[in-house]
Amino acid sequence: MHVEVRGRVQGVFFRASCVERARILDLGGWVRNTLDGHVEAEFEGDPGSVAAMLDWCAGGPPLATVDRLDVREVSPLGEREFRVTH
Fold this sequence. Notes:
- The chain is an alpha+beta fold and 86 residues long.
- The chain has helices spanning 14-24, 47-59, and strands spanning 2-8, 28-33, 39-44, 65-72, 82-84.
């Protein structure tokens, strides 16, 4: 799944918290800040774990304020690790 997270999501440890949660859920993929102030990520793995990750993204870490979550299905790439990318 590809997700764009909009709101107050930069400067609040969203990416670091996302990596931690994704690794706990054993997901592959990546997360990054966008130039327009949002966060985007791709998750792949067990469908239940992906759904749990999307639920987490809807709230984010304690300092975040998520206004909108845009989710779309993408083809999996076989990612096994989860990382921050730029």
